[in-house]
Amino acid sequence: MGIFTPREVWLDGFYTLVLDYSLRVSLEGALRRLWSHPSMAGCYLDRNREPADQSRVDPSLKALEAGELLGVAGLPGGRVPCLTCAFSRSDGSNTLELSLPMASLRKFYCVGIYPFSGGQEDHERKWQEEVDTWFTDIAQYVSVQEPFRIAVIGFEILLDPEFSDRIQDEVPVRHPSLLRPAKGGLEWYPQDRPLAKVLRG
């Protein structure tokens, strides 16, 4: 069975890591750094052909003009298709997104009916902790060369500049999994947890 071409592998929405930058110029370096992570294989442009049946393209904002860059993410539970997108909006936000299709995650993790259950069941917390840890490793790897304002992990995250600004000062009681710069590394706040784990750079 293919990893790109079965239609069902891209269904049910995306579990996503969003990196927020103040400057668009940072997106290019962050994109290249992300795809150089040892667990990432890509990039490709066509969902309708398997990776072995198409040429790789260099990760760049110009390549992203096609809409998205595709690849294969090596998670602890298995290899799943992934995609990256970048957005520069009129409100001044510049975001780089790495997304994993929920239908593909279900092949390797017991995700239940997430996100409709809110991620509160024990089995959901288990898979989220594993995938969030993997995303956090990606974010930490990228931040070494291209530090971000904040990073957020969750289901189809829509990030706005006001949220990014607020997170710089105070983490709310209810929040998605998020990371922000700290002295010597990053602070990681797992979903709805008040205390940060410090990740050294």
List the helices and strands and how they pair.
Blueprint: E1 14-21, H1 25-35, E2 40-44, E3 69-75, E4 78-88, E5 94-101, H2 102-105, H3 122-145, E6 150-155, H4 161-169, E7 177-182, E8 185-189, E9 197-200
Antiparallel strand pairs: 1-5, 1-6, 2-3, 3-4, 4-5, 6-7, 7-8, 8-9
Helix pairs in contact: 1-3
Could you characterize the architecture of this molecule?
It is globular and about 45 Å long. Strands 2-3-4-5-1-6-7-8-9 form a nine-stranded antiparallel sheet, sandwiched between helices. Helices cover 24% and strands 30% of the residues. The chain has one domain. It is α+β, with helices and mostly antiparallel strands.
Give a quick summary of the entry.
This protein is an alpha+beta fold and 201 residues long.
List keywords for this structure.
201 residues; alpha+beta; nine-stranded antiparallel β-sheet; 4 helices; 9 strands; globular
